[in-house]
Every structure is written in structure tokens, then in C-alpha cells.
Amino acid sequence: MTIAAETDPSPAFHTIRLSKVYGDGPTAVHALRDVDLDVAQGELIVLLGPSGSGKSTLLNILGGLDRASSGEVWFHQTALNAMRERALTDFRRRHIGFIFQFYNLIPSLTARENVDLVREIAEDPLSAEEALDLVGLAERMDHFPAQLSGGEQQRVAVARAIAKRPAVLLCDEPTGALDLKTGVRVLEALVEINKRYRSTTLIVTHNADVARLGERVIHFSDGRIRTIETNAVRAPPSELKW
Amino acid sequence: MVKLIARPLDRKLLRDVWRMRIHAAAVALVLGCGLSVYIMSVGMRASLERTRADYYADYRMMHLAASLVRAPDRVAADLERIPEVAAIETRISGYALLDVPQIVEPASARLISLPLGGRPRINDLAMVRGRWPDPAKADEAIVSEAFATALDIRIGANLAATIHGRRHVLTIVGIANSPEFVFVSAPGELFPQPERFGVVWMGRTALARAFDMSGAFNDAIFRLSPGADDQRVRSAIDEVLRAFGSSGAYGRDRMMSDRFLSEEIKQLTTMAIFLPAFFLVIAAFLVNIALGRVIATERSNIGLLKAFGYSDLAVAWHYAKSALMFGLIGASLGSIAGVVLGRAIADIYRDYYHFPALAFSAGLLTFAGAWAAAIVAVSIGAIFSVWRAVRLAPAEALAPPRPAVYSRSSGMLARFAARLDAKSRIILRRIQRFPRRAATTVIGIALAIALLVVAGAFPAVMTQLLSVHFSVANRQDVTLSFVAPREIGVMHAVAHLPGVISAEPFRADDVVLRHGRLEVREAVLGLPFNARLSRLIGSDGQAVEPPVAGIALARALAAKLHAGPGDEIEIEQVSGRRVQARIRVSAIVDPMVGSSAYMNIEDLGRLFREPGRISGAHLSLDPARYAAFNAQIKETPALAGASFLRQAERSMRRAFDEGVGVMNYLYIAFAAVMAGGVAFSAARVTMAEQERDLATLRVLGFTRGEASYVLVGELFVLALLAVPLGCVLGTVLGIWLMRLFQTDMYSFTFIFNPGGYAFAIAFTLACVAIASFIVRLGIDRLDMVGVLKARD
Fold first, then answer.
1. How far apart are CA B352 and CA B44, in angstroms?
2. Which of A197, B131, B370, B536 is the most buried (most CB within 10 A)?
3. Smallest Cβ distance to B784: which of A65, A106, A114?
4. pTM of the shown model
């Protein structure tokens, strides 16, 4: 699957007039309004915007965690908006790696076991050792989350996300809870993985400096895409500041 | 009230309780069950005691009684002179066989004379219908209400009675109850058979003539002055009456009716303590589970409240109040249910005991006790969680909690964990990491299993008791008792009664048994060797032969005397020759019913210097000649009574069904509430705690089923751990309870009933399964993003 997605020349994601409305009537909240977007396979995109601008909603719909109210969303040749719950679960299982602000590791499993968790349901996964090595945590594999710092926990979350070699990595504020130094290490890991495995990577952030990392930067406000910039020169994570 | 809840914190409290409504409902239901039993038992006990006391006072119930062979009327004056005797009444009392057309078998009745001067000064009658007999009319009589009701005897009806070998026709002029016969059973029978045995009151002159007792009496009853020394009066009575064949004056403790009432009151006390205590413990557990969870989720709120300047005490009180609300809801529920239950039980008692009035009423103190118990239980349940809230420093509470610190297992557990998949490892590690919480759930479920095991044991014990007593020990169809002991030669005539297939003699003597300073008045039964009809039961529930030499004691009797095999005890006849002898205890036997002493019939005859005398016979009958047999014995004056085994079994079964049966359904229903409550609370809390992990699993691509495995798996592992614990706990409780419910009349032994255990386990696991299933639906509704983006 990862392989198939990699060899498929079509855009990884393609959305047409994608909208999301929470609630109805006068209290309805328009989280996304008519978003049209193409994301190429292997691209690293940064989604930027204030809270409530719709960037996380888009990420969740692309990752099959949420459904659009109207419009279409395609993953290569597959229409996600037509999928049932079970198929969406399967889609996440096969193609998507998620990383959240609050790590969401299983506290009762060691770093290695957290990674092993996804290996149980993936078809051609990396070994836990490889995945943790990639994020620089080979030494701390047998530690439980409580024994790791925030940055280390987030890197385990990254290792867990990439262990199944997903076609897509969706990162929602991955450095939101981290200081500069640890945040940089996490971003380095993400960039490295994007480079090595050509995983389509979308990073949601409200930190403007992180935008220098992406090939493209999509600015959100009020549920719409305002502008899309292309970075002629991408900054390495080590140069970022927040 | 409006003002009270208008404060924002109180509004929050109400919303918190609403959010915890499932937990609140579980706690309230469990508390309600326990407290309803408490209020019912304590209220019923008080109502029974009060009713008994009123009844005894209003109708001047005797304090002492003495039966004798015959004493001239002038002796009454000697008795009256005994200090501390407030009143005395002499009576003529005896038994009669009644020929009641409504039933095939003969009925029998206790006959009691009414005083010449009118109403009895002691043991007065509560007239239900009709009037007092006209002293001038010898045939007028009053019958007891239960008997009249069972046989539909109306005022004006005629009753044929064989009294002292002569046939009389009585006219019923009144129907009444007496404090002396609240509980009426025929001699030798344990349970009332109102259609076969009743009490008949007749004029003194008529009865004296029938029993050849003119100018004499054979029964004396006494009321004592307040504060009288019972023992001293008894000795004085015995001194006067010994010469007239008295078997000794006795108090209420040996009056069958009062003894039964006292046993009933004792059992209500047992019930008032045992079941409610059990439920209060469970309620405390549930509060602990629920509030523990609330305080964990309210961490930041606690920090905020403290940061705003609320004192530790104010914070503690805020959270304690929600537990108290649970308690108050439960106490209200329990109070209402207790009164409803009490009224229902009072109806049963009223029918059974024929009290002139028995209304259930629980006193204020009872309710106060119940409410206090509820508050104590929920407070104990809340205290640990509330303490945690108090200890939380505001800064610490406002910061996100550190993930729970787990550690790797060691030894065997580690090797076991290594072989598990990650999801199973999550289950194992959570249990290992939070042993106290896991233990709470395990104990809660185990208690539910235990209660069901106990509830399931009662019917099994009853069935066993009935089957041993009526199939192994007693296989006769009928037991005939003679008016007075007869020579063994009479067995020839007995064997020739119509339809008799086989006949076995027995001898019964009232005796006092002494061992050291301990003394018990009981019956000693003489049984033949190789008996096939009525047999002794050994410790394994199988028939055993009567002792070749010495005396065998029922286990309960041996315990009262502190005597065992090899000990020598003293035996004294209480009537007849009053032979005193020493005899060696040769065995302990386990009759399920009664607690007599046993000897072989020849030894017993020799011991009391009356070889070859018998008291009655056990018979097996040809069913085809049942009617002929009954017709014949109705005409046989030498018989004091005939006890039909199948009827005795029926009446015993009825008594069990009405008493134990009703309680048992209640037990099972309550155990179900408890199992359900524990399972739901545990499932809800596990779900709440695992929400984040479950959402993570779902986001990673695990299906609902796979994610459910972690939730349901944990509950089931805990439930499975609870199974052996619950079975052991249930067994121990069962054994203990059987001992508490033990009386002189039955010996309950706990029966290992695999079916009962299987039911207890299956039922509880089903509750856990249903609870898990319902809670699992929450996984379907899980807002994955919401949960994962939220700080814990």
C-alpha cells in the first residue's frame, strides 16, 4: 500500500469544495468553507493559521478521523467522503500516521511496545528498533512514557506513527507542548522521515517560523485557504525559533 | 432551598451528580436494598416484640406452667401461697382425637378447660367470633382460629371428639386466639398443620367429667409479681407439685409457642445485621470507585478552586457533598422500600401467627440508624478520594498530570507479559500498576458472587434437610403416639390395623441431661436395631444404628452440654419414676431436625426400669387401605395422636417457602442489583480512565472491536479473578450464616451445591458482560479528536 501510493502519480490528496459545519441553525459553526486543495505524494506542507481557522479540521478529514459536511476528498483514486466507518478505520490503519500535540502514548507500554502496537496491525512495518533509532531514541526503548521527557515522548509518538511506513503523516501541533530544543529534534525526525520514505507530511502549527520548513505553506483563516506560499529555500529545523 | 443551590458551586455539584447518575443510581440502589432490609428487619423485630408484649400483657400470658398427673383442687391454695406468685390458675388439659369429615385422617386437638368462674385470669382468650361457652352446657366449646379457618368450622358446627376413650359431640360456640398458642403445632411436630391440629377450650366441669378429673387438676399456670425470682418460684412450685406427678415447672423459654416467636425474632436480628452490612460495604466501594474517578478528572478544577482561595475544607466539603447526596438518595429509597417490605412481611406474620393485631412500624430511631449507616458508608467510601483532593497543591493540580508511572514486570509475570500481544499487555500492566483499584473491582464483584452463593445455598440446604429427614431418616407413613406408655405386646395389635405393612416401636421420655454444671431438658428416644422406618443419621447424612451401649447425642445437644464421645453424663427422667442414672456418650449423631438424645429401645427401657414399655409406633401403610386405616384409628381411644409424614413434610415445605423462600428471592434480587451495580461502576470507570488509550488505538487504525478488547478484557480479567475469591467468600459466609440460623429445631449444614455456584458465577459474569457491552457502546461514540487533543 505504501508502495502503491508511492508509485501512484495522482495527488496524494485532492479536495473539491470541501466544507465542514458543526451544528445547525443559528449556532452552526463553519469550520471549513469550500476548500480546494491538491497535495502531491511526498510533499511536506505546513498549515498555518490562528485557532479555529480550520487547519485541524482539514487534517482530521484528510486522516479519516472526521467527515466532511459537503464536497469531496480523494486519497489518490479513493473517495474518502463515500467511505463507511469501518473502511475509514482500515484507511487509517493502512495509510495514515498521526502525531498530536499531547503525544498520546499508552502509558502502560514501553517506548518499544508503543511502537510494537502499530506493528501488530501494519503489513510491512519497520522494526521498533529501526523506528526508534530514526528518532534518536534507540537508547531509551525500554522506558515507559512517564520515564521520558516531553520531547522524548513526542519522538516515540513519531516513531510509532512512522513504524508502519505510512503514505501520509499528519501532525497536529507536534511541537506545541515542547521547548525549542526538543521541538527541533522532533521536527528533524519528521523531515528526515519525509525525505527517506517520501511520506506525504502535513504539519499543523500556529508557529509562523515552523512554516519555513515546508515545501508549501497554506495559510488558513475563517475556514478558508487564504494563500498558499511556496518556499524557494526550505530552512532546516535547526534554524527555527519560537 | 433555592438559595442553597443558587451558589455556583452547588450548581456545579448538582451537575456533577447528574453526570455521575449511573454511579449515583448504583450506589443508591445498593444502599436502598441494604437499608430496606435493615428497616424491615429491625422494624419487624420491634413490631413483633411490641405486639408480643402487648398481647401477653393484655391477655395475661402465663410466666410459668407445670403439668402433673393429678392433684386435688385444694392444692391450688398451697400454690397461691407461694411468694411472688401473683396469680395461679389450675386447669384440666389433655388431647383428643377429632373426627372431622373434611379430612380422611384423624385430626387432634389440645383440650383446655376454662375456669368455672368465667374468663381465664391467666392466658385469656382473644375472641374472634362467637361467645363464651355456657357453663351449664357441657358440649359447648371454643376452637382456635387457625384450625377453624383451615377446616371451615363455623359457629354452631358440631365436632366429634374421642376424649379419654369416649366419644363426645361438641358444639362450637366461639372462635378465639390465645397468647399461649400464637404458634400451634401438634406434639412431636415442628410446624403447624392447622387442618390437623388445633386447640379446643371447654368448660371445666365438662372436661373434668370427660377426663375423670372431678375435684382435681392436671395443669397449673402462673403469673408472677414484677421482679420475681423465676428460679425460686419454680422450685417452690416443684416442691408442692412433686407428689402429684409434676414433671417440673417451666418458663416461657420452654413453651413451644414463645420459643418459636423468640427464634423468629432472633433470625430477624441476624438478618438486620448481616445483609445490610454487606450492602453498606459494597456501597462504600462504589462511592470510592465513583468519587475517585471524579476527583481524578476534576484535577484542574480543584487547582482552580484552591487558586481562587477556597480552603481545603471547602473543597473537601464540596466533593464530600456529592457522596452524601448519593447516600441520601439511597437512604430515602431504602426507607420507602423498607416500609413497603415490612408491611408485606407483617401480612405474612399476621396470617401465620394469628396475632390480634400486628402492624409494621419502624421507629424514628430505626430510620435514623439507617440514615446514619448510609452516611457513614458513603463517607468511608468518599474519604480517600476527598483526602486526595485536599492534598492536591493548587500549582500541581493546574499542571497536566504526569503519565502514570509504570514499571516492567519481573520474574514469571515478565515472561508471561512478553508472550502477550500489546493490547493484552496494556490490560496486564494496568492491573499491576493500580492494584488497589483492581482489588476494589475484584472485591466488589467477589462480594456479589458471594451473596449469590449464599442465596443459592439456602434452597439447597432446605432441600437437603427435607430429603434427609423425610427420605433417609424417616420413611414411615405415619407415627402413632399412645396416650400412655404400653407394653411391647401392643405391637401385635398395631401390626393388625388395616393396611399396616410394617411397624416399629419407639419409646420417648422427657429427661434432664447434665454434664458438669450444664443442664438441658430434652427428649431421649429409644429406637430398635435394624430399624427400617425411623432411623438415626450419622455425620455423612446416612442412616446409622442406635448405639449398642450408652447414649448418642444430637450434635447441637452435645454442644450445649459440652459433651463428646466417652464423656459420662447424668440423665434424669422428669416424670414417672424419675430415675436418675449416669450414662456414657457413645456417639454424636446429626439429625437434621430436632436435637434429642438417642438410645437403643431395650437399654432405655432397662435404664428407666420399665423394660418392654413403648410410647408409640412408626408404621408403613398400604396406600390402598389408607382410608380404612384412618377410619379405624379415629375409633381407637388409646391413641393420643397420629402424625402423617407426608403432611408434616408439606407443612415444613410450606413454612420454608413462606419464610426462607420469600427471603431468598429477595436475596437473589438484591445480589443481582449488587452485581449489576458493581459491574456498571467498574465498567464506567474503566472506560473513563481508558478513554485516551482507546481513542489512541482507534486513531492508529484499530477497529472498535480491537479497541473494545482492552476495555472488556480488563473487566473480564478482574471478574475472573473475582470468581474464586467470591466462591471462597460465599462459602465462608454461608457456613457462618447457617450457624447463625441454627436453632434447636433444625441443624443447617452448608451444602456445597455446584449448581448454586455455577449460577452465582454465570449471573455475575453476565452482569459484567452486559455492563461492558453497554459501556463499550461508548467506544462507538468516542470523539477521537476531542479526546486526543484535550489535555488529560
1. 14
2. B370
3. A65
4. 0.77
